[in-house]
Amino acid sequence: MSTSPQAPGLTPTGTIASTTDRRRVVFATVVGTTVEWYDFFIYASAAGLVFGQLFFAPLGANSILISFATVGVSFLFRPLGAFLAGHFGDKYGRKVVLMLTLILMGAATALIGLLPTYETIGIAAPILLILLRILQGVSAGGEWGGAVLMAVEHAPKTRRGAFGASPQIGVPLGLLLASGVMAIMAMIAPGDAFLEWGWRVPFLLSVVLILVGWYVRRRVEESPVFAELAERKEKARMPIVQLFRKHALLVLIAALVFAGNNAVGYMTTGGYIQNYSTNPDGPLGLERGPVLWAVAGSAVVWLLSTLAAGFVSDRIGRRSTYVIGWVLQLVGVFTLFPLVNTGSVGMLFLGLAILTIGLGFTYGPQAALYSELFPASIRFSGVSISYAIGAILGGAFAPMIATALVQATGGTLAVTGYLVGMTLLGLIATLLLRDRSGIPLGPDHEDQQSVSPIYGLSKA
Predict the structure, then answer these.
(1) Which end of the chain is more exposed for a tag (fewer CB within 10 A), N or C?
(2) How many Å is the Cα radius of gyration of the chain?
(3) Average pLDDT of the chain?
(4) Which among 121, 108, 116, 127 has a CA at the least distance from the CA of 43?
(5) How many domains does the chain have?
(6) Residue 455 lies in a domain
(7) Which helix (H) or strand (E) is 376 found in, with range?
């Protein structure tokens, strides 16, 4: 089986991809993932700002804790979305799965914007809210793997990190868009008006964004790796079974890499900092609008560092880029709460900006890293399920854990300790993996791809 180097202008299957095709793929993955994560983060932002009062008010002091718990509930269903998307993505293609996840996420988000509150329909309100959040989780579980593979499998070998960063920047772009729209609505509908109707508008805007995402994604060609698998009739019959039979330990280690990033990232994307800094009964009591703008500003820093990390990983490798990222993330974790606790919006922005530099460097290379870990025939299942498990272990209940730690200790030092622990866990998992930057991704190289990247193991 040939393992000759792939020319820089070729896709992983050896076919020449036009500049126009590659640009279209990059644009489509950025737009699609931005729309998906806008929908996902709008919920997290609303959970920190209004859902406790509107849907869980009878729980009193525990309303915010339960509101954050509903953010985490969706993560428990991400593996279901990942299993379904992985199975159908490895059998029927990346593109069809991406179209379906986009519709599911958009429909669930828009319906949340139409939900009556607890005061109107009682216990049915939080139940319906949780059900729609579950649908968001199923969609998010299937979205990321498909977007990543569309980007990386279209990329030249020497630019996978840069191409793979395109779906990754959809996360900070989604956070920027979600925080920006929420901040604008806080200005248009201040005070009680925001509670009455202002928070609903960002959810309903999802309908427009989904139409844009659908239009862009339908114009993209199927991944060349999957197209070749289909042509050769080499698609795995039961990709998930093969994944866990041969690569279970790899899935776990890859999940821990993401968990180290995700737990820290959900301090903002999960709405925790927004709630901690604006809660009128809390230690800071800052105004909602300026805090949302500070979060939006930090999302710009996150976007730039994520994009930079993708390019850097093409130069020095995924593993080395990650190690730099973990060190930067530790710096951000140690400086976050001392700056936030000054009570200054400017210092809050600075704390988040420092944090997001490290977050970008531990997120930007992830698409390329994951794609290079798994064989072509089960790659969609491998990257999707690793990502979903990592999200559960990392971000699922990070805001709730942080809230509980502050309630139990009366300060944020324990939260810092928790985030340091998760960062070190991600670093250890990264060090367990060999760097496979540039490994051929096409179906001709399944034997090479199946050799375990875990140190100490020769075969998966």
Answers:
(1) N
(2) 21
(3) 85
(4) 108
(5) 1
(6) no
(7) none
Query: Is position 459 within any domain?
Result: no
Which residue(s) pair with 16 in the sheet?
Answer: 10
Token reading at 164: 């793979």
Is 269 inside a domain boundary? Answer: yes
Let me know if 2 is exposed, middle or buried by CB neighbors in 10 A (0-12, 13-18, 19+).
Answer: exposed
Query: Quick one: residue 456, left, alpha or beta (phi over 0 = left, psi -120 to 50 = alpha)?
Result: left
Residues in the chain: 460
Region of 317 (left: φ > 0; alpha: ψ -120 to 50; beta: rest) is left
- 5 within some domain: no
DSSP labels, 170-229: HHHHHHHHHHHHHHHHHHHS-THHIIIIITHHHHHTHHHHHHHHHHHHTTSPPPHHHHHH
Q: Supply the CATH number for residue 40's domain.
A: 1.20.1250.20
Question: Which pLDDT value is given to residue 232?
Answer: 57
CA angle, 273 then 102 then 443, to 5°: 105
Give pLDDT tens digits for 221-248.
666 666 666 565 555 567 778 888 889 9
Looking up tokens 């030249």 gives 156
Of the chain, the end-to-end C-alpha distance in Å amounts to 19
Residue with the two structure tokens 């994009």: 307
